[in-house]
Specification:
131 residues, alpha/beta, 4 helices, globular
């Protein structure tokens, strides 16, 4: 069962993402802050991460950069309520990140996760924006 870390400071969003993933046979671990997410990432193994770009305690892209510093080929879905992700992939650690705009449907979330997992295997940059 693939294991996914979900880092989002909005409890209801985190719960919705987790529910969709669990129903679709993913093992999910949740974190409400960047610090908690990074600690979990250091302590446990994950097959992918879903990170909110705008966290209360940190820029989510900085968190992704730190995670990719530890595991360079980690599949990542970055989510945001903002309409544009301009300039998001400015560093090597932020390439091959799938960007998903809130609100999104369950199918769009599952597609983004699969796209992220495939993008890392194929080493190609991708963007998936819903909304």
């Amino acid at each position: 069962m693939p294991r996914i870390l979900v880092v989002d400071d909005q409890k209801d969003v985190r719960a919705m993402i987790s529910m969709v993933l669990r129903v679709n046979q993913f093992d999910v671990v949740e974190a409400g802050t960047a610090a908690a997410g990074l600690q979990l990432f250091r302590d446990q193994a994950f097959d992918a991460v879903i990170v909110d770009i705008y966290l209360d305690d940190c820029n989510g892209l900085d968190l992704v950069g730190e995670m990719r510093g530890l595991v360079p080929d980690m599949p990542v879905v970055a989510v945001s309520g903002m309409t544009a992700f301009d300039g998001a992939a400015m560093s090597e650690q932020l390439t091959r990140v799938v960007y998903l705009q809130k609100p999104f449907r369950p199918g769009e979330l599952l597609h983004a996760v699969e796209t992220a997992r495939t993008a890392v295997k194929e080493a190609r940059p991708l963007s998936v924006c819903a909304g």
